Amino acid sequence: MSETAYPVTPRNRVKRLHERGRYDHETVHAILDAAMICHIAYVIDGQPYCTPTAFWREGTHLYWHGSSASRMLRVQKPGIPVCLTVTHLDSLVLARCGFNHSVDYRSAMCFGTAHIVEDLDEKAKALDIMIDRFYPGRNAELRPSTTQELKATMVIGMTIEEASGKIRAKGVGDEEEDYALPIYAARFPVTQVIGAAEPCPRMPAGVPYPPGLAGFTPGRRLDEIMTESYRTTYGPGQSDD
Amino acid sequence: MSETAYPVTPRNRVKRLHERGRYDHETVHAILDAAMICHIAYVIDGQPYCTPTAFWREGTHLYWHGSSASRMLRVQKPGIPVCLTVTHLDSLVLARCGFNHSVDYRSAMCFGTAHIVEDLDEKAKALDIMIDRFYPGRNAELRPSTTQELKATMVIGMTIEEASGKIRAKGVGDEEEDYALPIYAARFPVTQVIGAAEPCPRMPAGVPYPPGLAGFTPGRRLDEIMTESYRTTYGPGQSDD
């Protein structure tokens, strides 16, 4: 485990089942880098919104695509507070009483101030990195973005000011006196997997399968692929800076 | 498609790619009922939080487990505004330019006012339903909850005041002039599946596999299982009231 950690404050301290809380960069970043989709909470006129979107990490910065918060950000140049959360569901846990039913999971909550990436060059670079972060080497194979496409794309970024990870990985946990009861108890693993590629039927003949997608094999876990893509693109040294 | 629909207001109107927006109960409820985990956004002192949790639907009401919002709710008896979001990732879409890279997905955002279910009987009933909603018939097989367990569990509920569904299911969509380019383009299906049950090693010999879990077969999609469980428990007539 790395010694570098996010500060623990009342905002990010894990309250419920606090023994599951982690604050070190290595744990938090591993949860983030295994995902493509996050949920972002933000507030407009006191009303909270929760929006799913694709995101990616660079060191202790997070970036994502535009959302309804864009309207808010257009007028609030200094930025708005957000909470970006990633959750991996790892199992269903069926215990001997309702109270001990649970799920195994890995989740990370990141707090920061969101701001628009306005500069066109910076935005173009961010979007190129985004593609390669998910699909190593792919950006070089694509038709380059037009200025119009760049202008139509909103990129939002934030520095992670505080973060926490929370992991449950213990499967069935029951009260000692309940284990002898004749009740079925089990853990059902849950994974998110990709299927076989469905090539676009309008592709010209002879287009080769990109080498950067070699790891995208049918049945493979998406969290493993995303972690691998991240490390391929950024290198192991970048994965925890 | 049912004719019953949620009202469309500035709060829930889908802004980005608004042609993907759906407001009818049938579409929104189908997205909700296919899920076990949601993300909930709420605000404490201007700071947004985004928390993952298990949830379930009864008609146009949603219920979920306690979260950090609990502290807030303890002092704000009339309730606090929340946004509950469910997202199913259905595919990765690799197009011929960065701009047209996308994912297929189904998501639902529900707006309402969260309040604590304080009454112990009502809470007990809600938790029994929760277990059966995920695992049909299971509640009757369990060691009954103790009063202490009930008191230690926080159940939060809300009426869906407004909601929107958003669905993308078109796979690769490129600019007409890009289709002829020699660039690999494809859709990779993504599914969340369960694995083989891992029975608790401390179970006594001879405990039978519960008939209510007959649909929990290895490799099956979790969204299909959750939809099936919902309908088994509530019946088809309840699924869209």
UniProtKB/TrEMBL annotation, chains A, B:
Cross-referenced InterPro entries: Pyridox_Oxase-rel, Split_barrel_FMN-bd
Gene3D superfamilies the UniProt entry points to: Electron Transport, Fmn-binding Protein, Chain A
Pfam families xrefs: Pyridox_ox_2
Annotated protein name in UniProt: Pyridoxamine 5'-phosphate oxidase family protein
Source organism of the structure: Belnapia mucosa
